[in-house]
Amino acid sequence: MVLPYPPRHAFYNGKLQSAASTSSFQSIDPSTAQPLANIHTTTHAAVDSAIASAQAAFQAWSATPPIERARILHKAATILRSRNDELAKVETHDTGKPFSETSTVDIVTGADVLEYFAYLVGGGGLNGETIQLRPNAWVYTTKNALGVCAGIGAWNYPIQIALWKSAPCLAAGNTMVYKPSEFTPLHSTLLADIYTEAGVPPGVFNVVQGGGEVGAYLTKHAGIAKVSFTGQVSTGLKVAGSAAGGMKYVTMELGGKSACLILPDADIDQAVDGAMMANFFSTGQVCTNGTRVFVPEGMKAEFEKRLLDKIQNIRPGDVFDMKTNFGPLVSKQHYEKVLSYIKHGIEVDKAKLLYGGLDKPKWLQGHEKKEYQEGYWVQPVIFTDCRDDMRVVQEEIFGPVMSILTYSSVDEVVSRANDTNVGLAAGVFTKDLNLAHQVIARLEAGITWVNSWGESPAEMSVGGWKLSGIGVENGKRGLEAWVRNKSTLVDMAGEVATVFAKL
To answer: Catalysed reaction(s) (predicted)?
Structure first.
């Protein structure tokens, strides 16, 4: 069977390594459940070789002046933008996300981050501090690259997350061994090719392929100085524990169960639009989704009426039709997981089903593309009259499932919003900006929005609280996560102060 895409292999020493595996699996198109490409699992020996390649390249790359690294990364960003639609097509096939989304978000925002860090290091972002202690003594600090870093990608924003990790890593002078998710790996070697075309030297950016076993071997490897991981909390705890055992630096961007607070004075149309973006964008497969929607008791009826009106604007369909704004779930495994949560919400939690259900979207009936019938399509789902103790309210579903909860006071809703062991994101909708700032200050989450949801520009450092993560990505603080500090005290007094002088 001839597949739509060529096989994916490991990439190190500046080239594809077709002999670096002994087994393979297939990447699947979520919209049709049809195979896209054969993915060759990287052996442990080949992972060792990829790390050795990165180690060999580190000394020269870290010694390259930041402005020269910046020029190379700028060129890579330019190439990414010039190939936007081509790469977006790959992302749509691999993730199932509509082309209307991948062509305007995924590559664009990844290139923005690459460009941001190129500008940052090119403009002195790696400069240290100089402090005069006394007339004849100074302290200066330097920011030094860490070494070989491991990047473990996620399946929901494959190339964007690969760039969120590799851009600051490479800009700071590190080298990287990157493992994409086994569910969405097609972008990985395309990005390696783009870096190579831009002038990134062999060994600076490397790729290994495979599932969790490959990732575990990579992250515990003695040659790795830092692990940057994006994924679910349970896996992140294992990765962080393994990294801590080797005293490695870590950045963990994990899951959440974020609260979307509609305050009593909010514009109801803006609130509904925000809640829909916080639940149904990217078919709900976004870690920062605000799936716990808190609505004032007196606003509930009107909020739900407007929500049911606007939900008609969700348009599943041909993923390459620019009018389509809602795709399938990423994999059969995830499809079954999300359906099990919906079923639990209906049958066990006894939440009121306001919209959607277990059936596939009606548009599939009679659609001219019969292959879509086998895809991992679900309906957007809205549960209402929810309680805080329901499983669908407490656990991250990572699908298009909204839970509506009511409250009677601001103090009450803040307390309930914080009653969770995760704290990735939160947001409020209100016309009262003083109240907005007061509520935001009390919410236990690392990423917050006021009258908006989901935007994470390159300039904005983002990271979770509680079990939602360690460290931040992007922004100026995002660069600090990829360097280690060295402080040096220089005494020019001409003598050494000592307690061992002759009396």
So the answer is: an aldehyde + NAD(+) + H2O = a carboxylate + NADH + 2 H(+)
Identify whether the C-beta of residue 364 lies closer than 8 Å to the C-beta of residue 378: no
Known catalytic residues? Answer: 253
Burial (CB < 10 A; 0-12, 13-18, 19+), residue 300, is: middle
Q: Is pTM, for the whole model, over 0.85?
A: yes
| Cα torsion through 364, 370, 375, 380, rounded to 10 | -10
Same domain, 269 and 243: no
Same domain, 278 and 415: yes
Per the structure, the complete domain to which residue 402 belongs is given by 259-450
- Phi, then psi, of 294 in degrees rounded to 5: -95, 120
502 located within any domain: no
Q: What percent of the chain has pLDDT over 90?
A: 96
Mark whether 361 and 234 lie in a shared domain. Answer: no
Would residue 139 count as lying in a domain?
Answer: yes
Q: Do 227 and 250 contact (CB within 8 A), yes or no?
A: yes
pLDDT at 86 over 90: yes
Residue 312 lies in a domain: yes
pLDDT of amino acid 119: 98
Element (H, E) at 71: helix 66-82
